[in-house]
Amino acid sequence: MTDEQEIRTLIENWVTAVHAGDLDTVLTDHADDIVMYDVPPPYDGVRGMDAYRETWPGFFEWQRAGASFALESLEVVAGAEVAFAFALLRCGTAEEFEANPALRLRLTIGLRKQDGRWVVTHEHHSFPHDDVPPAVASDEIRGVLDGWSVGTAAGDLDALMEPIAEDVVSYEIDGNYTGKAAVRSVCAAGLDSSPNPISFVVPDFGLAVGGSLAVAWSNDHITADGVETTSRATRVFQKTADGWRMVHQHLSYPAHA
Length: 257
Fold this sequence. Notes:
single chain, 7-stranded mixed β-sheet, 6-stranded mixed β-sheet, 13 strands, elongated
């Protein structure tokens, strides 16, 4: 058995023991000086085997109420004396997964070889926060808009469609469209409308962020064949595991009396 296989088996057995509430096996193959950064406090970590042992009974009680703890993916990198692994686990109740199907526990494990066998010296458990800091969201959504600028200039329809949600609803200048395929046809027609590259620029935009949802509003500048137009745009984005996806768009020109 290679070091990678040995570590993989160690972690798989640990996950099985956690789900079974088998404390003795959970503690096996862990160093006496283990340091764990857990989901709940303390912020400076759980340090030492005694403190590590005390974290588990409450978790096992929570699991008995119907929660899952199942390995979804695992990567292992092993050196001669030190190794690390990172994994994603389905850890939650049925109600939590119904509310957020993408919910996953993130796990990083550090190991060292001790007396010829691998032992866990560090664990880091966390869930991503649903609340995205506004500054981070602004930068990421700016990246989406800039990507549309580059994609429009290059006539790259696939790039334009990448951040569009499958169930998008778009109120376009010339009509209402539901679904990514319908919006793709509108964008394709727009790109085909000019024999020359088209410029799409959003000089500035407003933004409101709440959890995994964001609303952005802007004046879009579009230049085709030397003619520039400005349209008003309101866009709703949802944060997913693959990044921000536009779920709704409303474009208009002001009406003239």
